[in-house]
Structure formats: C-alpha cells, structure tokens
Amino acid sequence: MPPVPSRAPSSLPPEPAGRLRRPLLALHAAMEAEALWRAVRGLMHAAFAPHRVTLFLGHLGMGRARLVFTDPPIAHPEEWYDARGRINPFSPFIEANRGVRFYRFAEVLPPAAVFRRSEFYRRFARPEGWDKGVSALFWARREVTAMYSLYRAPGQPDFTDAELARLRQLHPFVGIAIARVRRLQSERLARRGLEEFNRQVPVGLAVLDWDLRVEFANPEAHRCCAEWNFGAAGLRAYSPRDAFALPEEVLAAARALRAGLLGGAGAGGEACAVAPAAGGAWRARLSVLHNPSSALAKPRFLVAFPPAEGPRPAGSGRLALLRDLTPREREIALLVCEGCANAEIARELGRSVLTVKTQLNSAFRKLRVRSRARLMALLR
Asked: Is residue 61 over pLDDT 80?
C-alpha cells in the first residue's frame, strides 16, 4: 500500500469544487482532533450529502478505534461502538483485505433483504438510520491508522461510481490532515512524558523560550531558585512554587547566549555556567537547545541546577534522600514541600486522594518521618 502523499493534489475535484473550497481550507487548518472532525464532517456533507458521517481515529494495530466522532451524535458513544464492534461485519472484511482503501458496504453486506433481518441491522444500522454506505481507510504498513465512513438512509441512493471517484480525489487531503494532527499529538505526548520525568528527578531543570519566558520548571528548580534568591531563611518563609523566579544572574547568562546566537557562527558559545553574584554554593548551567528537524523553530535554553561540589547549600542533602523514593513518591514529597494538601496533589497529578495518601505514607516510611511537617523540614 503506497503511503499517503506528502503534498495535496495540485487541483481540486472539478465538481462541486466551489462548495469544497471552504471545508478544504478548514481541513488544512486543523491542528486538533476536534477541529479535524469538524472539517471532515463539513467536507463530506458538502461533497456527498450523506445521512451520517463517522470518523474513526487512534487505532492500535488492527483493533477498534479509540476515538470515534459521528454526526448525527449518538448517546454514550463509547458503549455503543464497543458493542457495535463485537458484531461489526466490516472488521473481518478489513482484516482479510489489509491495504484496501475504499469499499462500498454492498461489497461486504449480504443482500438488502437478508441484511435487514440481521442482528447488526436491528441493533445498530436501523437506529443509526442507514442501510448503505462507503468507507475510506488509511494504513501504515499493514495496520489501520484511521478511517471514515459515509452512510445513506433507506430512501437515499447508493454511492455512484462518480461519487467514489470524487472520494478518491479527496482522500489525500483528508490523509494529510489526519497525519498532521496525529504527528502534533505525538509530539505533545512526548513532551508531556519528558516533563513528567523531569518533574520527578531530584535535579533542578527549567526550559526558557527564545524570549526567555519559562516554558517548564520542575519542583526542584522552584526550590533551587527560591534559595538562590532569598537564602535558606527565605526558603523557609516562602512557597518555592509561588515565589518562583529565575535569578537575574541566570537570565543575564541566557541573554548573553542569545546575543551570541544572533551574532552568527563563532560569535559566542552555546553553554555557560553561572553563580550567585552575592556568593553562595548553588550553580546553574545553561545550554542552547536546537531542533535539528526544523530550522523554523527558534532555539530554547536549558537551565540545570546540578548538585553543588564541595560545601553544599542548605538542604542539598535532600538529593540523596529523594533518590530513595520511587518517582511517584518523590513527586508527591516535592509537592508536599511546596505546601500542597492531598486534595491539591490529587488534582495536580490526576490521581485519587487515596492513592496520594498511600504513596505519601510509603515516602514517610522510607524517610523515617511521621508527619508532613517533619518531611518538609527534612527535605528543606
């Protein structure tokens, strides 16, 4: 099966091209799954006037779609499509014909009189209001990545050869949009995974955008910056997260790195170290983050607060203590040190309050403390 082309066809389907321009523009602008669905729905209604449109996304291998959009809407769609998939006559057909890009329902279903007596028609097709249709599929090697289906009601005609030809012309446009949304969501998921990991490591990390705005900072960076800015006494007086601000010395170093990049090759380095102007044991290391896959993305700046060498700043022994905890326990312990209650931690991490309590008690046992106050004192 050839891959979806990297560019859209050079010309629009000749008829009805005027009605398709607006939905095609919406399709090319879609960046999220919801926007993609609205664009596909609008395009299919403009091109074919079906009774129903359904978009299936998020397949894992040859399994059922994890995300289904349909219009007209169906109440409780997850339960509906889960039950529907168990007796769906199209899934065995697709499994047996891997790589097929289009099929009319008539190629799969029994004769109309027999189909209308089937359990699938009685439980699903008739409530959905259709008895004929066509599906278009997208593949990666021999696995489905997405598909959409157009349905017509008993009083409507089946899809003609001319309409199937138009569907084939539109297919690459839809495929490009689906691939774009899937790629963007994959990038967001990868970034989220990296951020979740960095939240849990006992080393301060922050990422600045080109304009030196903070895009990400983990709890350890909050604490390091609070002690850098306010000292050990100030650290005890402030919530590190609420009082978070990058030290001016760090921002000045980032501005110098950016100026070097603006000066061109050889104008400056891409990493530097900085220490508090008033003295202190904390250090920060800055480096430039490039995106090798895109020259359009401006560089970012990574700020790391590594454990100090020699005399350690107050509280830095906490790093060894935090390493004794699991990542989940460490994450909760750090949020406790920021003054968060169990309910706040549960909302922040998307866990139940009971889970938070269980993992916090486990951290108490490992660190040999009996209260939140003792935990905060130990880790500060």
From this structure: no
CATH architecture, range 17-191: 2-Layer Sandwich (3.30)
Domain boundaries, the chain: 17-191, 202-311, 317-380
| Residue listed under structure tokens 């607006």 | 22
Which tokens sit at 368? 């040999």
Beta-strand pair 143-152/132-140: antiparallel
Instruction: Please report which confidence band the pLDDT of residue 296 belongs to, taking 50, 70 and 90 as the band edges.
Output: low
For residue 135, what is the enclosing H or E element? Answer: strand 132-140
* Element (DSSP H or E) covering residue 96: helix 90-96
CA 293 from centroid of its chain's CA atoms: 19
**Rg of the chain taking only CA atoms, in angstroms:** 28
Whole-number Å distance between alpha carbons of 329 and 279:
33
Least confident of 32-36, 127-131, 281-285, 353-357: 281-285
Tokens of 323: 């390493």
How many angstroms separate the CA atoms of 29 and 33, rounded?
Answer: 12
Q: Which CATH number fits the domain 202-311, given the four candidates 2.40.50, 3.30.450, 2.30.29, 3.40.50? A: 3.30.450
State both tokens at 309: 């060498």
| 3-class secondary structure, 220 | helix
- Name the nearest CA neighbour of 303 among 257, 348, 338, 337: 257
What CATH class has 317-380? Answer: mainly alpha
